[in-house]
Amino acid sequence: MPGVLRVYDCDGRHFIKSSQENSYDCVVLDAFSGSRPVASLATVECAFELRKILAPSGAVLANVVSAEEGSDISFLRDFAASLGAVFSNVYAELCEQDEFAVEDNYILVATDSSYIPDDALVFDADTFGTPVRDGDLKLTGTPGDINAGHPASGGKLI
C-alpha cells in the first residue's frame, strides 16, 4: 500500500514541538535563511525533539551545504555532532554535483536504525565537530529564525 507524503511549510521548531510522539517515519530538513542554514534546527535540543516525534526506526534527513567553495564543512560536522548526541548512527551522503555548483551539497542522516549504506561518510567521535546548543544561538528577532554565534564557526552567522 502506498504511503502518504505530507509537506509542511512552517516554522520548524514550532512544528516539531507541537507534533505528537512517534508520528513520523522520516523528517526532512531543508531550511535556509537566504543561503545560510537555520541553526536552530541543528542543535542538540532540537535533535531530542526530533527523536521524540520519530517512529523507533525513523530517520532525520537534512540538506547541508558546504562553505568556502566546498573547503569548509564545519557546519556539517557540528550538525552531525548535535545529532550524534541523540541518535545511534549519523552519516552523510554527498549529493550528485552540478558541474556549475560552487559548494558541495550533503544529505545528513540521523537514525537509530542499524542500516548504513556502504558509500556513506559515517561520523564518529573522531569526525564530529562541536555540538550546537540552543544557548549558543542568538535570536535575530524573527520567530524561528535563529542564527548562531557558534564558537566552532568562528562566531560567524551560520
TrEMBL record:
It comes from the Bacteria. The active site is at residue 30. One of its GO terms (biological process) is polyamine biosynthetic process. Signal peptide: none annotated. Keywords: Polyamine biosynthesis, Transferase. PROSITE patterns: PABS_2 (PS51006). GO terms for molecular function: transferase activity. InterPro entries: PABS (IPR030374), SAM-dependent_MTases_sf (IPR029063). Residues 1-112 form the PABS domain. Belongs to the spermidine/spermine synthase family. This is PABS domain-containing protein. It comes from Parolsenella catena.
